[in-house]
Amino acid sequence: MPWGEFKDTAAERRLFQRRTLVMLVIVMLAIGGLIARMYQLQVVEHEIYTTLSDKNRVQVQSVPPPRGLVYDRNNTLLAENRPVFSVTLVPERVQGMDDTLAQLDAILEISEEDRERFQRRLQEPRRPFQEIPLRYDLNEQEMARLAVHRHELPGVEVKAELVRYYPHSELTAHALGFVGRINRDELQRIDPVNYAGTNYIGKSGIERFYEEILHGQVGYQHVETNARGRTLRVLERENPVPGEDLQLHLDLRLQQRAHELLDGRRGAIIAIEPDTGGILALASVPGFDANKFVTGISVNDYRELSDSKDKPLFNRALRGQYPPGSTLKPMLAVAALDSGATTRDYTIWDPGHFRLNQGGRVWRDWKRTGHGWVDLKDAVAESCDVYFYEAAVEMGVDTMHSYLSHFGFGEDATLDVSGALSGLLPSRDWKRAVRNEPWYPGDSVNLGIGQGFMLATPLQLATATALIANRGEWVEPRLLKDIKGDRPVEEFLPAETHEPLKLKNPDDWEYVVETMVEVMHGAKGTARGAGRGAPYKMAGKTGTAQVFSLAEDEEYDEEEIRERLRDHALFVGFAPVDNPKIAVAVIVENGGSGSGTAAPVARALFDSWLLDYGQGDSALVSGVGEVAD
């Protein structure tokens, strides 16, 4: 039978039409579903997905403010900011942290210290997508190597930031302090919003005390990023408010001169301007390079500093607590006169020793043969110990404690000097509380020459000397001179709390000043060598503080004593006498005598300030021959 008889064309057509209709319906339904979904995404949920898209594309970044600069009184820059390039990671964008760190280690040689510091920061609370620094201060070769591999390292960026730099680091380290990386404890107390993106904070000194105004206000910027987190462009920016620039009373020339005069010897020098209380020099020798602490000092460098027997990290000017020795005698002279324990005309016979009672303990004078008949002026000029032994017993500890506290001993009397210690001004209550013993008359004898329990810092000695220079008028020591903006200085300085020290007879101030003038210019003055030939009149007092005690009849032999057990050499003074421009305190550890070691240092400092730097009054500094030796 022919093939055509078996083919049903009509049936096949109907079948094809049905299948076509079904497929058309399916296609139309699919197209309808796509259109419906597109409508939902593009119209109904437009704002939702626009926001999600922007979150992937646009990031909010904090912009840390430039830290305020610090200048000395002559506008010499003491603390500035310099650009430093660092490697940072955004953990949310890093694909495999361990592998990324391994790659960076191969490219840049990441130290174990940097890695450990990064891991600590990684665990600390932070804002999402906030960068965490890994390596600081990249050089050009390291940046070039990293640029070649950047496409392999999502979430890794090279970031430029301004980092603190101290151009005169060793000279100013103890005065300015330094900044360093923010640690865990500091993170708990700072404002997380204002410090977003900031890696550094003031750790000590001026940097710490004025952190609030030096830091400034953080800014923000909206940036567009690609899928790897690379910044493509800045969409919007709110600029940060830079920190305020500060001007200090500090004079870099005098600061450098103080370091030169100490000449590598361990010691400290404080110079104060009596009129304002401004600290002109704050030198502690040896010093250290504060720049090493900014981005993180290495373990080896820190160990070298901390293990040094010369203790360069120790701020002797503010935290060194020493027996003031005979430098306390002018303050005790004020106390003795005003309390009535002595008079200007009262004289004693000094045989070279003192006893409280017959057959009792012997307290010796520094001059073993004694000074003979002496009054108060002679006692200060020649530093007669026996006179002050007797005056101290006459006054008693309560009177001495009362007057010495008015001079600022036993407290931190500064306005803005961070880290200053308060020394030790002993009293009956103190000894009972600490030693569970009563106060003995012999304790008063020792206090009469600045020995025994008494401890003072060089800053306290300079402050007390400035009070004498001001004839009882109190001006608290301060470093801040001006804020280079519209904000007043008084807004940031604590209120002054000290009242003037008013004496029953105000002329006693001039008399005590005259006794200090005799020290420098009198025929028997202990520092007459340092005062010789000066074209101005100066007042001062030498001192020697024992590092260890001698037996009752033991003599001091400097040559037999190791250098570090020798006496400390001290000096306090001011100049010119009638219109003081500078008051100083000098201590040279294990320097021997104050007259032979510390007084010449102070005289050289006076000369530099009054003559070389032109700060003296021409009416007072007019000729070499006007002052008798």
Brief sketch in words of this structure:
This protein has 629 residues and is α+β, with helices and mostly antiparallel strands. Strand 2 and strand 3 (77-89) form a beta hairpin. The N and C termini lie far apart (155 Å).
Which stretches of 5+ consecutive residues score pLDDT under 50?
A: 548-554, 622-629
Q: So, the CATH homologous superfamily of the largest domain?
A: DD-peptidase/beta-lactamase superfamily
Shape: elongated
How many helices? The count is 22
Helicity range of the residues? 25-40%
CATH architecture assignment name of the largest domain? 3-Layer(aba) Sandwich
Give the averaged pLDDT, no decimals: 86
End-to-end gap: 155 Å
The CATH C-level name of the largest domain is: Alpha Beta
Characterize the main sheet. Answer: 6 strands, mixed
By CATH, the topology of the largest domain is Beta-lactamase
User: Strand content of the residues, in percent?
Assistant: 15-25%
Task: Write up this protein.
With 629 residues, the protein is an alpha+beta fold. It folds into two domains: 190 residues, Alpha-Beta Complex (Penicillin-binding protein 2a (Domain 2)); 365 residues, DD-peptidase/beta-lactamase superfamily (Beta-lactamase). Helix content is 38%, strand content 18%. It is built from 22 helices and 20 strands. Strands 2, 3, 4, 5, 10 and 17 form a six-stranded mixed sheet that branches. Helix 10 runs antiparallel to helix 22, helix 14 crosses helix 16 and helix 14 packs antiparallel against helix 20. The C terminus is likely disordered. One of its GO terms (biological process) is cell wall organization.
